[in-house]
UniProtKB/TrEMBL annotation:
<keyword id="KW-0472">Membrane</keyword>
<feature type="transmembrane region" description="Helical">
    <location>
        <begin position="20"/>
        <end position="47"/>
    </location>
</feature>
<dbReference type="InterPro" id="IPR005899">
    <property type="entry name" value="Na_pump_deCOase"/>
</dbReference>
<keyword id="KW-1003">Cell membrane</keyword>
<keyword id="KW-1133">Transmembrane helix</keyword>
<dbReference type="GO" id="GO:0005886">
    <property type="term" value="C:plasma membrane"/>
</dbReference>
<dbReference type="Pfam" id="PF04277">
    <property type="entry name" value="OAD_gamma"/>
</dbReference>
<protein>
    <submittedName>
        <fullName>Oxaloacetate decarboxylase, gamma chain</fullName>
    </submittedName>
</protein>
<dbReference type="GO" id="GO:0015081">
    <property type="term" value="F:sodium ion transmembrane transporter activity"/>
</dbReference>
<keyword id="KW-0812">Transmembrane</keyword>
<dbReference type="GO" id="GO:0036376">
    <property type="term" value="P:sodium ion export across plasma membrane"/>
</dbReference>
Amino acid sequence: MLATKTLSVMGNLLAFDETALRGISIAVAGMLIVMLALILISLFIAASPRILAAVAKVYPEPVERHRKRTESKDRDGGEEAVLAAIGFVLHTEFQKQCASEDGPSARDG
């Protein structure tokens, strides 16, 4: 009886060791895979300026052919005043609309 229990305990310890070894090997393999991926990402980031320089030789940036914007003579300040007045009226009307939706209790108190 004692010998059977001893073998049973030893068998459980051996099974635990085998399971632990599998778990450790899986964990180490996973960490190596993640480390390899991080190294590859770091190498790609470090090499990206050289890669982009090579790509720029094949596909150069287009030269801007737009005319430079000149100050318009029509913009003397009258247009800005009109825009400010429109904004003021819109703001005032919006405030009136919000006050009417709140009802008389908002005005009383």
